[in-house]
Structures are given as structure tokens and as C-alpha cells.
Design a protein that fits this description.
5 helices, alpha+beta, eight-stranded antiparallel sheet, 17% helix
Length: 286
């Protein structure tokens, strides 16, 4: 009887305090919008946009995008026609922190991705190259992070569709990860971000983007734009900072990468897709 009373008392106490319910998650085609901050005032859209390939070139160094990086979160109602302001993702990673291997690693003596061919010899040669020059000691990974709040990002759906003007602006900084570089080695910062204005149209003397192909699903409540290519060659990149003990490696990194790098010397090509959903429909799928 005493045990039953204790149990009943505990249940009553939990009822008074309140026990958090299991976190609901979107289902079906809406599952990709799990990080949409539902319930945010004035928000009526959710976005999930994976970049699956492409590259970023900063002056002398091209970093291929081989690991999918996701831009996600919410979209506020338009203040102006077709222009949507971002709302930060629920988990705080509006732009996921996805490492990309820097060819040549820290030593930059050999760029392993320049060994072409798919024969046995070429594959083994690339493996050996990576083992020597891109291992945990000399390998370097670049992680592109947001350098400003999500609210500074704007998506122009009209510019994306017609391939004219800025479709998406991204204020970023690039972290270079390697044990010798320390934990605060960055190109760009909150005070001096790399601001990339991306278009699905043509650039002057650079790559040409693609607006992609539109389709809908979930009874028209999800818009998917497949085969999107966002490009830019108008951004500048500042010098590196915080690299190595007391920043002693900043100068070496700057010389190796050609930093600071003026606009016209840098290129971004982000290939992937964009999915946009009605936020009420996302919530209703939970």
C-alpha cells in the first residue's frame, strides 16, 4: 500500500509540474523540414536546400564540395514580393557545418585530385597520395559557417526562377581544421564576413548558373526545384586569422592561399536542390 501511495504521489507531482511530451517531427514528404522553427510569428514557409556538389575557389585554391551541406530553416512572409527572409533552424544549424577536404592538405605539395583516371594504378596512386599528404596530421578540412544571423539571409524566388539578379545571399566564414592550425583558424569573421551573392544566371567572365526544374508534391504543399546551380564570382575574401599558436601561421596560410583575395579572383558554384513547404502543412504532418 505504501508503494502504491508513493507511486500515486509521484504521478500526481509529475502531472502538476508537467512532463514534456515527445517531440513531434514532420512525416512523409515533410520529414526533411524537421529543423523548421514552427510556431515562429509571421513565418509561413519552411526551407530545406542541400548542396550536393560544386566547388569554392579562393584565389589559388579550389575546394570541391563532396559532402552534402544543408541550408535550412524557416521563411517569413514576404515584406516585398518574392523576397523571403530566413528564420534560424530549430537546432541552430541554419547552414550545417560540413567539412570538405582541402586538396593537397597542409603541405600543399601535391594535389591528389589532379591524379586523373579510374584504372587500378590511378586509384592506388590517389590513395597513396592521400595517405601521405592528406592524413590526420597534414590534412586540412574547410568548414563553411554562417558569419551573421540567419535573419540577414534573403531568398529571392523570382530572381532564382528567371536567372537574373541575386537569388540568395550568404554571409559566411571558412574554418580551416587541422591540429597544427588550432581551433580558431578562419578566413572571414563576423566582423568581416565573406558575403556571397549567388545567382542562377550568368556571371561576368565566370560560371553560369541554372534555375532548375520545378515540381510539386504533397498536394501542392511542397515546391521542389531540382538541378539548381547557384554561382558567384563577385565576392572578396579577407586574410586568415587565428591560425596556429597566437596566429603565428596566419602569414603562411595567407601566402599559400593568396589572401586577402579581391573580388573577381574567387568563385562559388553550389549545385543541388531547393525544397520549400507551407509551414502549416509541415506542422499538420506531425
Amino acid at each position: 500500500m505504501r508503494k502504491l501511495l508513493v507511486g500515486a504521489t509521484a504521478i500526481a507531482a509529475l502531472a502538476i509540474v508537467g512532463v514534456p511530451a515527445a517531440t513531434a517531427t514532420p512525416t512523409g514528404g515533410f520529414a526533411v523540414f524537421a529543423q523548421c522553427p514552427l510556431g515562429t510569428p509571421h513565418m509561413n514557409g519552411c526551407i530545406y536546400s542541400p548542396t550536393e556538389s560544386g566547388y569554392i575557389t579562393i584565389n589559388k585554391t579550389e575546394v570541391p564540395i563532396v559532402n552534402t551541406q544543408v541550408l535550412q530553416g524557416g521563411l517569413l512572409r514576404e515584406e516585398e514580393t518574392f523576397i523571403k527572409q530566413f528564420v534560424a533552424a530549430k537546432n541552430g544549424e541554419t547552414l550545417t557545418k560540413t567539412p570538405q577536404k582541402v586538396p593537397g592538405g597542409l603541405l600543399d605539395l601535391v594535389k591528389c585530385n589532379e591524379i586523373k583516371g579510374e584504372g587500378w594504378f590511378e586509384r592506388e596512386l590517389r590513395k597513396g597520395c592521400e595517405a601521405i599528404f592528406e592524413n590526420k596530421l597534414t590534412g586540412v578540412e574547410a568548414v563553411t559557417e554562417l558569419a551573421a544571423p540567419a535573419s540577414t539571409i534573403f531568398l529571392n524566388t523570382a530572381a532564382e526562377a528567371v536567372g537574373e539578379g541575386t537569388a540568395l545571399n550568404l554571409p559566411v566564414k571558412v574554418k580551416l581544421e587541422n591540429p597544427l592550425l588550432g581551433s580558431e583558424c578562419y578566413i572571414g569573421s563576423e566582423a568581416e564576413p565573406i558575403t556571397i551573392d549567388l545567382t542562377t544566371g550568368a556571371t561576368t567572365g565566370g560560371p553560369t548558373g541554372k534555375p532548375g526544374t520545378q515540381s510539386t508534391s504533397e498536394e501542392g504543399k511542397i515546391l521542389t526545384i531540382s538541378g539548381v546551380s547557384l554561382v558567384s564570382n563577385t565576392f572578396s575574401a579577407p586574410g586568415a586569422s587565428g591560425c596556429g599558436l597566437l596566429g603565428l601561421l596566419d602569414g603562411i596560410i595567407n601566402e599559400k592561399l593568396g589572401l586577402p583575395s579581391a573580388a573577381g579572383k574567387n568563385v562559388a558554384v553550389l549545385d543541388g536542390k531547393v525544397e520549400i513547404a507551407n509551414s502549416k502543412a509541415v506542422e499538420a504532418s506531425e
